[in-house]
Amino acid sequence: MLRRASTRFRWTREFSAAFGTPLPVDEILNKHAPMVKNLSSRVQQLSNKQKEEFTEWRTDVDDTLERLLSCYTEKKFFPAIVGSAMSGLANSKEGSDVDVVLYSSMEQHDIKRSRDSIMSSPSYSKKVLTGARDILKTSSLQYKTLVLLPSARFPILKVQLFRKNKKALVVDLMIDSMPNLRNSLFVQNASRSVDPRVHQLHLWVKQWLQVCGLVGSIQGLFSTYHTALLVIHFLQYIDHPDMKPVLPLMLDHFPRDLSPDTPFSDIYTLGTSPASFDPSSLESPNKMSIGDLIVRFVDFYNRTELSEFELNIPTGKNVRRKDDEFQRIMMIDPYDSRSVCAVEQGVGRLSEACQQTYEMFSAGRGFQVPFSFIRR
């Protein structure tokens, strides 16, 4: 068993020893039941509010986005909104950017060939992104190029779209990035179609990680997608000793929508059409409150030896690792055999955050919203 890496968080360590030996999770939930109940109520309220704000935000920006997509459709591209603006996890109050992928074909092998060329040749990547910017010049949209990154890990063209008497909208344009649409559809099926506790838990976990200083894909930290996978893996995990899964195995329940073998043209149709699933068709056997699940989420990852096990989202299991990158979290999504999480020292950072938080829960602290490590 490897020693967990030390991490500099945004809280002080002095009070950790004062909490004593942490209680078992069931004892925490029983001992602090009123605070857990209040936590549930507050998170539910915030989740409902964020969903309403998301709907209002999408209504507000959809006209601009439709004009943007149309200018590329006219040039024979197949554009798709992806990421949190598609999945419903965007926080409109934080001024979320909108991710858009421009597909040059509906044939999977053509998209892959194009993407391989973009990723292997910075000069070709720059040419393609510059071409995407040139198309904007021919449109009626008022815009400003913020950055063009042909050599980045994920080459993007970031533009700011100006709107009359409204706040400008920032859009990240990518070319032929096939996983983005599949990933977004996977998260959308979990966050918007199955159980409100998915959105609620994601809201709390993202805010908690922000307090820990662990959020920010640009800085090499956890992205919204990483956060969503941590939540989904916990909720569909099939080997919990003390609770039934909240979610079914997503790939089993939505084979047409989520299978890696589904033709990309079908995925594009699903991803660019209004969601058609029926939330009432799924009745979770787990009736725990969101407060219970928050405490158990922290307990689950506190007990998971991330240096020894990968988080295998397709199977809903923790699988013993075969690699030697022990401080990198092995987070396997349904569409890549490699880890989609490249957070530096991610094992140590997440493990220590969970340990500190679990100790606080045991001592009856940390149940306020927003979460804080400050003693009060």
Automatic annotation (TrEMBL):
Transmembrane segments: none annotated. It comes from the Eukaryota. One of its GO terms (biological process) is RNA 3'-end processing. Residues 47-185 form the Poly(A) RNA polymerase mitochondrial-like central palm domain. SUPFAM superfamilies: Nucleotidyltransferase, PAP/OAS1 substrate-binding domain. GO terms for molecular function: poly(A) RNA polymerase activity. This is Poly(A) RNA polymerase mitochondrial-like central palm domain-containing protein. The lineage of its organism: Eukaryota, Metazoa, Ecdysozoa, Nematoda, Chromadorea.
